[in-house]
Specification:
83 residues, 3 strands, three-stranded antiparallel β-sheet
Length: 83
């Protein structure tokens, strides 16, 4: 289980295709991961995107931060270098 205490950021990308490629590479190697999606538009108090509707959001407005467990970090980085 990946928690805030045992995770390490392995990649941060913009765009759905790039994060999908990273996730696929990690799955192929059997490396557990967690994805955090952050909007460039910022969020309000309740965590909702401010000043922009869902229709206006596209994949390029979102940053995908991919985490792995600390013990798997070097393995994951090596996997991503090979792709």
């Amino acid at each position: 289980m990946i928690t805030v205490f045992n995770r390490r950021e392995v990649a941060a990308v913009f765009g759905m295709q790039e994060q999908d490629a990273i996730r696929s590479a990690l799955v192929a190697e059997g490396i557990p991961y967690q994805v955090k999606c952050v909007s460039r538009a910022g969020t309000g108090v309740l965590g909702r995107v401010r000043g922009i509707s869902d229709e206006q959001l596209d994949g390029q407005d979102l940053e995908y931060v991919i985490y792995v467990q600390r013990r798997d970090y070097e393995w994951a980085k090596g996997t991503l270098r090979k792709r």
